[in-house]
Amino acid sequence: MGKKLVSDFLVTENIALNKTNFLIRLASDIKLPSISPGQFVNIDINKSNEIFLRRPFSVFEVDYTNNLLSIIVKILGRGSKKLTEIQPGEKLSLIYPLGKHFTIPDKKDKILAVGGGSGLAPMLFLARESGLPPENVDIVIGARSVADLVDVDSYRKYGNIQFTTEDGSTGTKGFVTDHHLLKNEMGKYDKVYACGPDAMMKAVSSMAKKAGVFCEVSLENLMACGFGVCLCCIEPTVKGNLCVCTEGPVFNINDLKWQI
Amino acid sequence: MGKKLVSDFLVTENIALNKTNFLIRLASDIKLPSISPGQFVNIDINKSNEIFLRRPFSVFEVDYTNNLLSIIVKILGRGSKKLTEIQPGEKLSLIYPLGKHFTIPDKKDKILAVGGGSGLAPMLFLARESGLPPENVDIVIGARSVADLVDVDSYRKYGNIQFTTEDGSTGTKGFVTDHHLLKNEMGKYDKVYACGPDAMMKAVSSMAKKAGVFCEVSLENLMACGFGVCLCCIEPTVKGNLCVCTEGPVFNINDLKWQI
Amino acid sequence: MADLGVKIHELQLKNPVMLASGTCGFAEEINDFYDVSQLGGIFLKGTTPRNRDGNLYPRMAETPSGMLNAVGLQNKGIDFFIENIYPRIKDYNTPLIVNVNGSTVEEYIEVTEKVNELDKIPAIELNISCPNVKEGGMAFGVTCPGAEAVTREVRKAYKKTLIVKLSPNVTDVSEIARAVEGQGADSVSLVNTFVGMAIDAETRRPLLSTVTGGLSGPAIKPIALRMVWQVAKAVKIPVIGIGGIMNTADAIEFLLAGASAVQVGTALFKDPLIPLQIIKGINEYLEKYKMESVKQIIGGLQM
Amino acid sequence: MADLGVKIHELQLKNPVMLASGTCGFAEEINDFYDVSQLGGIFLKGTTPRNRDGNLYPRMAETPSGMLNAVGLQNKGIDFFIENIYPRIKDYNTPLIVNVNGSTVEEYIEVTEKVNELDKIPAIELNISCPNVKEGGMAFGVTCPGAEAVTREVRKAYKKTLIVKLSPNVTDVSEIARAVEGQGADSVSLVNTFVGMAIDAETRRPLLSTVTGGLSGPAIKPIALRMVWQVAKAVKIPVIGIGGIMNTADAIEFLLAGASAVQVGTALFKDPLIPLQIIKGINEYLEKYKMESVKQIIGGLQM
Ligand SMILES: Cc1cc2nc3c(=O)[nH]c(=O)nc-3n(C[C@H](O)[C@H](O)[C@H](O)COP(=O)(O)OP(=O)(O)OC[C@H]3O[C@@H](n4cnc5c(N)ncnc54)[C@H](O)[C@@H]3O)c2cc1C
Ligand SMILES: Cc1cc2nc3c(=O)[nH]c(=O)nc-3n(C[C@H](O)[C@H](O)[C@H](O)COP(=O)(O)OP(=O)(O)OC[C@H]3O[C@@H](n4cnc5c(N)ncnc54)[C@H](O)[C@@H]3O)c2cc1C
Ligand SMILES: Cc1cc2nc3c(=O)[nH]c(=O)nc-3n(C[C@H](O)[C@H](O)[C@H](O)COP(=O)(O)O)c2cc1C
Ligand SMILES: Cc1cc2nc3c(=O)[nH]c(=O)nc-3n(C[C@H](O)[C@H](O)[C@H](O)COP(=O)(O)O)c2cc1C
Ligand code: FES
Ligand code: FES
């Protein structure tokens, strides 16, 4: 009992990071339990006729002193759009903390975190919580164009942040997999993490696998409940169909049945 | 064509008149057509999972110069509650103008307008639009208690306003039908109008009938469409089942099949 | 502009977006908002041989993403229609279809024969699926023999396009569709409303005077879409999709599932302009995917 | 505190609010939120004789006020349940009911016989209404002979309370209810999900891997309520109401319509605490109307 909670949070900030990404900061009345990178919350966006189910979002930052939790929402469809229109002062019901977190790196690990699209939040959370010296942490963020990137300067103290853009408007031109850290230096990492579009995660996984490097990805399967009762979010694994919401969202790529 | 419109209005004001009544002022982009007392608008309150159909509200005031239209909303259930939470700057879709208006009094008529609950708006609109000298217009407003009344001082220039409250906290103690204008002076009026709870309208109708005075009431039957296509809002009349939304909401009591 | 024209047997429609019976009156009420000649077609309010007062008030209850109605075919009868309404609407430049109802096979025939004489009515929709009348209506539509009997007799009496409107309150709707196809129906339209109920927990009374009523609106769309898909696979005649269509995507889903055209019903209560938005939306969709004709998406579901 | 206790045959419930099969896992997942002993009962995830992987992803689509699922009875089989799950949950202080499934009558019996041996399982729910499996499931539940056959055989194999779960995808659900009552069912629960479908207009593909799936949630409540009302009039055994229950008023409506208890399903995905709110709400309702027992509202619809 009490391992998972349903409770109302107060929206304290809603900051547009760019045209499609918003940072939403939420305050809890009650003391926040411990939450680790990769875990998520399931949010009731009860603002329209069309949205019935909750929507899952990875936790981005947690401030245990002030009981604040933040998420980064990328507009994808109806629910995420509505959510980004929320105003400070409004309330949101969250179910949390959900899912399994990334394997926390060992003391001397060198890690690579690759994020794209809505997968940015957990990668930055991981970099921050890893407890590693920044020189041990490489972060590659991929986007279509410089306009799709968000300002992550405050995270430079946790690691070396690099960019790729498809149109070359900043950083390396191409996909994250075109970045030299992935193309040429994959072998030097102890652990590789990826979160973002399926195609990106598969490409990163494939490179990590070839290099024989430990690699975890965070899946974003469609969810109805988020806490393991509906069996809608399953992913085929070597252990059979597993629920992404309880056995994931973080999976070691060796457990997945991806054709990589 | 073009007799009825569906269009978005901008909420310019939302004023709490008391705990349960709100005056909402709406601005139209397009020129407002002529609207008369008794006519109504059908509003899409698309703010929650639970509200599917529009909700009808009588027009309270129209400002043709600035294309403003206002309504008074009394909180009854889910939809009216949500509507009263709307903020200036938000938009509302209205279907309008709907229904038939009250018979406009003749030049020298003496009229009595009786309003209660959500029936206040059309009575005040009528008093204002009647074009009669204020001494020809008596208005009796009934409420449970003084706390349920709204400030109508600005309407005193259009008529003689009287109150009744069930608990006697202001005006005559009792129901509107206990007011001496109704009890003793019904016969002096050329036209009597009533809008409010069913029981109130029936009581007023019965007194008007006994006194042989012309009397119109405005019904608030449940509506799905508001413009005459669904046949859900019907009222049995001497001419058969008529749609309240197109053949009403204003009816002469002689046409109704009320047991009065 | 892509070609939006579709054909339902001999009925040529300028576009596949029509209005559902009982939700658009006799077309005039919608014409108060805009020129109805822009529409693919209009299914007029259900008509019976003689005047019907319909059911007692209350006839309506809101439900999550939908509504229940228990109108019970209130109408002034076919003769009143012919004398008073038909002359006023017959020159609207869009197909007007009479929705034919009766308590007995004879009554259906009585209405049909009279409509058969009306030049400007190119088709009828045989309503064997109204859940809100005590006799006739849905009783015919939920068994194969019942559906066959009415269709057979009405077919004899009617020379133009005969559309039979099916009830979703059955175990196997494609069986009923095949049955009426076998008796000469030129098209089937589905779905009519689902039998539902609403109770006021506080008064402990039903919200409808008739206790049960017909459920319509987006709530039923997933079931309606499935039924249209099943029926389109089961019959060769064109299928008209109905049930909870609120926007362009909904309409396209029904076309993809195999409907040749659609009817918009309850959505009109929310916004009578929705059908025009859908017509525009279908055109934009076709242009986006570089298709020349709406026929290219009918039955185009990729499996 | 009013008396909220009700009885389903020999099954004594502390209150009439239970959790629906397939929406509450094996109770542990809900126990993570609160002590499940507060609940009237828990219907465990559908169980088959052997492991089933269920259907391919995607298995879920959101719909207006509801959702479609196509899980397809993914479970590890009855033996796994008995060895690994049952020992962990058997001491929860609330009735745990196994939802029994199979592709053939023999498979239903196989599961039933094993459950019959479990001390702490006081009842089974015979699921003859799952729309998401190719064999068995709903196929049994949509005809009287099919429903009778399974019920008869399972009845022979089971000594405790036998609840049969009915499908709403039929023309006359009360006929099926009477049929299973005739074969010894101690109670019927209804409804299971409606067969529905969802299409992505842009990709032109079905949203579910199985094309069709089961519709649940508030969208179906009006139909479910009507069916419960019809069945409660048709049979003498207790009826358990299911379908779109989201709050106290919904639950009370089902009780008024004649259900002796209810199951909360899809609502748990929105908020797993809803059943507790409903239990509290029913108590408040009874106190407001000065009633001593929840039994006073069962079937209490005023006509
Ligand atoms: C564990 C987890 C963590 C997540 N973390 C974040 C996060 O930190 N930030 C963020 O912006 N988003 C995150 N997402 C994704 C987010 O939940 C979806 O973007 C959101 O639910 C979409 O809802 P919508 O109403 O906007 O889209 P809808 O209008 O419901 O759908 C729009 C389109 O997107 C597709 N779609 C919807 N949800 C998903 C999904 N989960 N995966 C793939 N396709 C989908 C639909 O099929 C449809 O085609 C996460 C998802 C999961 C499962
Ligand atoms: C022509 C017309 C003009 C109106 N003018 C005004 C106005 O100027 N100001 C105002 O405050 N209200 C007015 N009303 C009433 C207003 O439409 C209802 O109060 C509103 O629709 C209730 O919606 P809700 O969602 O709050 O209630 P719901 O949550 O839908 O219902 C709450 C309870 O009220 C009952 N109910 C709902 N609507 C009505 C109704 N129309 N009549 C009787 N019972 C009802 C329901 O059955 C339920 O028991 C008017 C109604 C009509 C038909
Ligand atoms: C108020 C109302 C009245 C209706 N009357 C009729 C009717 O007279 N004849 C008929 O065939 N269908 C009638 N219907 C059913 C609709 O035509 C349509 O089949 C059904 O509502 C489902 O479509 P929708 O969800 O788009 O409304 C009526 C529906 C409503 C809501
Ligand atoms: C994801 C999901 C899985 C389900 N699995 C089962 C099942 O295994 N066995 C069963 O009898 N019913 C199953 N059901 C049906 C529910 O128990 C219930 O009958 C139905 O969802 C209607 O109730 P609701 O609207 O409250 O959800 C499932 C429903 C859902 C949504
Ligand atoms: S989302 Fe329900 S089990 Fe994962
Ligand atoms: S509300 Fe539809 S006809 Fe009056």
What does this protein structure show overall?
By secondary structure, chain A is mainly β. Chain A contains four helices and 16 strands. Chain A has two domains: 5-98, Elongation Factor Tu (Ef-tu), domain 3 (Beta Barrel), CATH 2.40.30.10; 111-255, Nucleotide-binding domain of ferredoxin-NADP reductase (FNR) module (Rossmann fold, 3-Layer(aba) Sandwich). A seven-stranded antiparallel beta sheet of chain A has the order 4-3-7-1-2-6-5. A seven-stranded mixed beta sheet of chain A has the order 11-10-9-8-12-13-16, sandwiched between helices. In chain A, a hairpin with a 4-residue loop joins strand 5 (61-63) and strand 6. The radius of gyration of chain A is 18 Å and the shape is globular. In chain A, 47% of the residues are buried. Chain C has a single domain, classed as Alpha-Beta Barrel (TIM Barrel). Chain C has an eight-stranded parallel beta barrel with strand order 3-4-7-8-9-10-15-16, surrounded by six helices. Chain C is built from ten helices and 16 strands. In chain C, helix 5 (144-157) packs parallel to helix 6 and helix 6 (173-182) crosses helix 7 (221-234). Chain C is an alpha/beta fold and 303 residues long. The A-D interface holds A 1-6, 44, 49-54, 93, 95, 221-236, 240-241, 246 and D 22-25, 29-35, 45, 51, 53-54, 57-60, 62-67, 69, 71, 74, 217, 266, 268-273.
Which strand-content bin applies to the residues of chain C? 15-25%
SSE series of chain C: EEEHEEEHEHEHHEHEEEEEHEHEHH
The CATH topology name of the largest domain in chain A reads Rossmann fold
Annotated CATH topology of chain C = TIM Barrel
Query: What's the alpha carbon Rg of chain A, rounded to whole Å?
Result: 18 Å
Beta strands of chain C, count: 16
Q: In CATH's first tier, which class of chain C applies?
A: Alpha Beta
Q: Can you list the strand order of the major beta sheet of chain C?
A: 3-4-7-8-9-10-15-16
Structural class of chain A: mainly beta
N/C terminus separation of chain C = 29 Å
What's the quaternary structure here? Answer: heterotetramer
**Shape category of chain C:** globular
Radius of gyration of chain C: 18 Å
Uncertain segments of chain A are none
CATH class of the largest domain in chain A: Alpha Beta
Largest interface: C-D, 48 and 49 residues
Low-confidence stretches of chain C: none
Q: Major β-sheet of chain C, in short?
A: 8 strands, parallel, barrel
The hetero compounds bound to this protein are: flavin-adenine dinucleotide, flavin mononucleotide, FE2/S2 (inorganic) cluster
